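Appendix B, record 7
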Amino acid sequence: MKRKMMVRGLAFVCMFLMAAGVALAAGKIAYVDLSSTFDKYEKTKVFDEALGSIQQEKEKSLTQLADEIKAIEDKMPLLSEKEKVSKQKDLDEKTQKLKQISQQVALDLRKERDERLKEILQDIEKVIQSYAQKNQYDFIMNDRVLLYGSASADVTQDIIDLLNTQYKQESKKQTSKKK
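Structure tokens (predicted):
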């Protein structure tokens, strides 16, 4: 009985030491709220505005074509049978053209958005890697994989600040090159 207690006690001590060793081996760990970082990054805001402008321009041409279709549809009941046949063909062509242009616009916007998202995520990744190396972190994790993270391990604001500072510096360089 005494021997069993001693073995259990020894096993407990060994497990405790192993757990402590694993914790020490893990080193310095932090986490980042990627969605917040993405949303608060100035480049994201600039890209969103640019995409919004592009979308508005594309929608103007679509609206113009849709208005032409509507005008033809409104005139159809007033036309003779011969004119209706002619206008129906024109109406079908314009409707098909509107569908094609609409699909192409959606595809182009999606492609542009994906390219910009990729660029932003690469920026975020580079800054996180640089920050981790500079501050000697062994791991910086995405907050979505955590079940719990201490607020002291959250480096999100540091990453956002670095990203925005870097973006402002790059913007100044590009502005000065244009002059």
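Remarks on this record: The radius of gyration is 30 Å. The longest strand covers residues 29-32.
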